[in-house]
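Quick note —
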Amino acid sequence: MFFLLIDLLVIGIVIQAVKYKKVRNKIFSHKEVEKAAREQVKKMKITNPVITCEYCGSQIDTSREEVCSHCGAPYDVSADWRARFNVSDSFIEESADEVISSQESKVKEETANMLKKIKRRIITLCVLVFGLLILGAIILVTDGPGNYRGNEKLNDKNGYRNCVDVDYKINGDGAIYDDGNVKITVAGIYYEENSTRRYNGLMRSNGKIAFTVENSHDENIYVSISCNSINEISSDTNYISMYGRFKKNKTVTIYEQIYQFPGEGISELYFDRIYVSCDDYKHGEENVEGIKLTTTHDETCEYDLDGYKMIYTNDKFDVYAKYTDESYDEGYILYINNKSDKAFRITTKDILVDDASCDIYGIRDLYIPSGYKLKTSTLYSSEDTFENLKSKEVKMSIAFNCKEDPSLDFSTGYIELN
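Predicted structure written out below.
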């Protein structure tokens, strides 16, 4: 609304300024007025007027009569006639001055009124802009309520609106982060009844998770949480992705969607990243990973590996690949099984098609806990060489990094996908 008023005021000021300039241009210079007077005199000289005879008072039509038709008197000495043929320069100048003076007086009055309007609008515009700056400063200093997350209700927003409690409980107190100043707890898990369906080979449903954020710190904080691993299945897209700002010395409960919620329920999940920082960053940040949460539910998931081919194996991982052209993009799906007792992060590097390097839309720094399996989305490239893959030699390199023990890091080197 403020910006609309400001736009209207600016447009109004521009319109008034244009009008003001036009009115000012109405003032003629003395030379212009004198020129116009002389042009008029010239017209008068060309016209033969009907004049009055100085001797008998009769009318004389000079276009037809050379003398008075009543008394015969000549009219070449008529004062009226001389006035029309012998207009003096002083008369022209005096007339011009009179016209200019009259015009200036009228223009001054009009421009004075316009300047008052322009002045009032400029003052109003300045007041609005100043008020907007003050309002912005107040919001910045007080951190308006819209910038921070407060207590939320389960079915008020964030997607699914018919959620109910699951019929199992969280083991322990549900705490997933506690640094003495900030504590984050999983307060509940919920699902939508009658929303279960099969997706990507697994049963999926709609669900939500509740987080209680206790900020006993004397500063506002920013929190980001992600989870990509549930029920021994990791995903290259997050099941849970939460972020928000939270006010100092406050405790709130919020709700987030669980994407691809397991239709059979949740037995365990891993939060692969929890990031907490202060607004002013004076106290640095805490970035943890691999926080496991379990429930009283007992459920695991398994993918059907029909059509997959093992392309790599060692004592830590098995890697399978499958060609697909079912989606919009031709490419490969990877199935990766973590057999080790450590969590790793996985990155797919470039891909070789007939020894030509292609950049691919793959996975970057993806978390996979011990004992978990990962099925990727289709890995593909938009480059021209990445087509008709079945008839070409396709190779890929995959890097595995262990944060807990970097000595376990390794790469597969280029391995054939087909």
